[in-house]
Fold:
Amino acid sequence: MIFFALEAAAWAVRPPFRPLLILTQMAFIGAGSVFIVGVTGTFSGMVLALQGNYAMKQFAAEGYVGGSVAIALARELAPVLTALMVIGRAGSAITTELGTMRVTEQIDAMDSMAVNPIQYLVVPRIIASILMFPALTMLFDALGYLGAYVMGVYVAGIPVGPFIEHTRGFLNPDDIYHGLFKALAFGLVVAVITTWRGYSASGGSRGVGEGTTRAVVASSIGILIVDYGITLFAVGT
Amino acid sequence: MIEVSDLWKSFGENQVLKGITLTIPKGQTYVVLGGSGSGKTVLMKHVIGLFKPDKGTVMVNGVEISSLEGKALTEARRVFGMVFQGAALFDSMTVFENVAFPVQEKRQGFSSDQIRAKVIEKLRVVDLGEEVLERFPAELSGGMRKRVGLARALVSDPQVVLYDEPTTGLDPITTDYVDGMILAAKNKLGVTSMVISHDIASAFRVADRLAVLYDGHLAAEGTPSEVRASKDPYVQKFLSTWFAKQ
Structure:
């Protein structure tokens, strides 16, 4: 898989460049995931606000709910949950599509036409993932915080002033950058795993199914391991 | 034009090719006959550089394609067109996009009108009209898919066309039609062809030279009449499955 990723990196910087294919994949991975990421983000924020309010109320510290939710979303929940949602929706589809192309000789056909399949099929998906994972994470952040605001202020009755002020006090731009960097890394990891599993599929439709299952499992575990690694490196023990 | 020398290939314990040597002269149609699992497709995929041999060489126009990698291999493949057994059409693309794909990707400076004209011209060669241009492969019959596959192989005017089981699964009339297309590609366009098949009737109809592949080696090789006269027991048995019925 590492050689596969390195080969993709080498082809990414060689002409011809195919911006239209990248845009198509951005639409599929990014725009196509807006609904599922938006819903997940909104409800995650709402739940965090309710749980936070339940816990903080015991210390008469409800005003800190906005800030704590914002930090949790920005640094951890938004990139991880976004990645998990996109793996389920787009990652599995990528493996299935490339795997089907492999077992029906469409990838061989592309090779025979002097078109490198890694450059044509894999590189646009990796670039699109690297770009769209952070964008979707920002959407998750925004809608998650909005959900938390609605639940915290209008349902739980937390005063607007402390809710907003403590968010401003707690949340630094670095928290958001931290989450976006994670999202970028997750995009790379997920795209490499899912394209590699599809590209190297064999054994007919059963092989494609197995490859897709493995891609989803490996991607999900992979992002949690990478998440731990980045967090450990960024904040220490 | 194409020279295969002492080609060996195994997959795990399975030794598929055992020292294949053959030459395909320019402008001729060379058919490799053999039963299922005899290694015909593996041999063809070596010719176009999709597989690397364990030992031996494949020379195409004086270039050793078996030793090339990356961009050099991609460039070397520009002389080829290939018709796959199952057509291998891109199922997310229309017929027009499929046939236009090699021309658009080779970036030879054709305008979109010129590409459209080339696509329509090649579809006419395989007797398909403009009404199929916007159809997807799933909306075509097996025979139509084969024809679109051939049009796609011919659209960039290749010097060499490789056919992987071009008549498998086709009815006799369509088989006859595909044979006619292979002959037309040779006679009208002057292409060199390599055909992998187990269809004996079709092979003897289109071949200038023939080889019978058995157990990883060539059991017979030569003109159709030379192969027909072969004393090799396997070749006699293989050919009798068709000639005995005539």
Remarks:
- The radius of gyration of chain B is 18 Å.
- The beta strands of chain B are 2-11, 14-24, 29-34, 55-60, 63-64, 80-83, 160-164, 192-197, 209-214, 217-222.
- Chain B has nine helices and ten strands.
- The mean pLDDT of chain B is 89.
